[in-house]
Amino acid sequence: VLLVESGGGLVQPGGSLRLSCAASGFTFENYAMNWYRQAPGKERELVAFISQRGVNTNYADSVKGRFTISRDNTKNMVYLQMNSLKPEDTAVYYCNLGPDYWGQGTQVTVSS
């Protein structure tokens, strides 16, 4: 299993970023996927969940209405569209499959 995130960076408050996760090494369409994040000094937290076919999604209360998770099973990709970003969204964002598989993370910094 390999999960590779991209799309992080520095953005001003109120801005947007789109994170991507390229998945390989497993039958992607058979598995739900998650995005987590970890801010400095804090525990890793679940940000968003998407079911195998993308029908069901769920979000942390802190990002509801601002973030959207999606997937493309033809490309083995999962995305996290982040709008109206706030400084407290600053963290390393991880793509996740189940309890054992994590990407290397991509840094998101929201600052003016």
Q: What would you note in describing this structure?
A:
It is globular, with a radius of gyration of 13 Å. It has 112 residues and is an all-beta fold. 0% of the residues lie in helices and 51% in strands.
Give the structure's gist in a few sentences.
With about 110 residues, the protein is an all-beta fold. Helices cover about 0% and strands about 50% of the residues. The protein contains no helices and 11 strands.
* Broad structural category: mainly beta
Spatial shape:
globular
Radius of gyration: 13 Å
Which strand-content bin applies to the residues? over 45%
Compressed to H and E, one letter per element, the order equals: EEEEEEEEEEE
Gap from first CA to last CA: 37 Å
Counting DSSP E segments of at least 2 residues, the number of strands comes to 11
Residue stretches low in confidence (pLDDT < 50, at least 5 long) are none
- Helix tally equals 0
Biggest pleated sheet: 7 strands, mixed
- Residue-averaged pLDDT: 97
Helix content: under 10%
List keywords for this structure.
single chain; 112 residues; mainly beta; 7-stranded mixed β-sheet; 4-stranded antiparallel β-sheet
Question: What's the structural blueprint in terms of helices and strands?
Answer:
Layout: E1 2-6, E2 9-11, E3 17-24, E4 33-38, E5 45-50, E6 57-59, E7 67-72, E8 77-82, E9 91-97, E10 101-102, E11 106-110
Parallel strand pairs: 2-11
Antiparallel strand pairs: 1-3, 3-8, 4-5, 4-9, 5-6, 7-8, 9-10, 9-11
